[in-house]
Write a structure and sequence with these properties.
338 residues, Rossmann fold, 30% helix, 10 helices, 2 domains, Quinone Oxidoreductase, Chain A, domain 1, alpha/beta
């Protein structure tokens, strides 16, 4: 098989940062599927992992945690899939990634691909859908049967996770959704996905809520800088509300400011289940299948916005650079490694 890996300790300006190299075709065991990868998406986690690799990698580190492809062979413990199945998944951050012709992935974190999408469209969904679903329904504990009409603020609504979170919150949970966006195209994108209000997170969000007459949010999902937005989130959150973030901090924050409101702060990290092999790991399989059903029913729409050519070292460098620009709307996808 062939793969594209990060050689370590190099900037994106270096043409040798990513290289194509041969490696052995992995053999599935236990719950593993071997997938022939047809398309991959690039996410902020790819850029963060790459930036953290300061030393030379031998062999190069295979990144990539979003893919769609076809099951080629299965381990002896597999019960959910068979060879020939079209699948989509985000994988496990501790295993070799999807920037390759083939990849091993545990069946319990893989879903059947939406029948109405092609491989490039499907590859845009898994990581963001898992993150948004877990954040809304596991961490913030929103119940579509009981919480319809409650108010959710999504900070960073136009990115990959925000693009699917707006839809899940609006179309599945029936919430009133306030999204943030800083540019006109990203504002329009959020509104097109179903956001009821849009505010600019580069301005005073507290003042914006007051000016637009928006009541305090019952829940906040932070997909942008937790450090930059923590004071505003603490002021905006309703009494007994919950704040969930996916963005780590570099600063210390005083959680006591949430005490008088009996408000809570918690994290979402979509790799927790596969990394720790939690007892409920198969929930990622189940939720991906439900996302596929909702897409095929027309309830959710795909979030692919940039198709950046086939998977090559140069295209992968360009994709990382585009994500690091902070101007992405929706998702960026690369085709198969030829």
């Amino acid at each position: 098989m062939q793969a594209i890996g990060f050689t370590g300790g190099k900037s994106l300006d270096d043409a040798a940062a990513f290289v194509r190299f041969p490696c052995e075709v992995p053999q599935p065991e236990g719950h593993d599927l071997r997938v022939a990868v047809h398309a991959v998406s690039v996410n902020p986690v790819d850029t963060k992992v790459r930036a953290g690799i300061k030393t030379t990698q031998q062999p190069p580190r295979i990144l990539g945690w979003d893919a769609a492809g076809v099951v080629e062979s299965v381990g002896d413990g597999v019960t959910l899939f068979k060879p020939g199945d079209r699948v989509f998944y985000a994988g496990d951050i501790n295993r070799p990634g999807s920037n390759a012709t083939h990849q091993l992935v545990d069946e319990r974190i893989v879903g059947q691909m939406p029948a109405t999408l092609d491989f490039t469209q499907a590859a845009a969904l898994p990581l963001t859908a898992i993150t948004a679903w877990e954040a809304l329904f596991s961490r913030l504990r929103l119940d579509p049967r009981a919480d319809a009409g409650r108010r959710l603020l999504i900070i960073g609504g136009a990115g990959g996770v925000g693009s699917i979170a707006i839809q899940l919150a609006k179309q599945v949970a029936g919430l009133e959704v306030i999204a943030t966006a800083s540019r006109e195209p990203s504002r329009d994108w959020c509104l097109s996905l179903g956001a009821d209000h849009v505010v600019n997170h580069h301005t005073d969000m507290v003042a914006a809520f007051r000016e637009q007459g928006i009541a305090a949010p019952d829940c906040i999902l932070c997909l942008n800088s937790t450090d930059a937005h923590f004071p505003a989130m603490a002021e905006l959150i309703a009494p007994q509300g919950l704040i969930c973030s996916i963005v780590g901090t570099a600063e210390a924050h005083n959680l006591d400011v949430l005490k008088s409101k009996s408000a809570g702060f918690l994290w979402e990290f979509m790799f927790t289940r596969p990394v720790y092999r939690t007892a409920d790991m198969q929930q990622q399989h189940d939720l991906l299948n439900e996302v596929a059903r909702l897409v095929d029913a027309g309830t959710l729409r795909g979030t692919l916005q940039t198709l950046a050519g086939p998977l090559t070292p140069d295209n992968l460098r360009a994709a990382h650079r585009q994500l690091e620009s902070g101007s992405m709307i929706g998702k960026l996808v690369l085709g198969a490694l030829g």
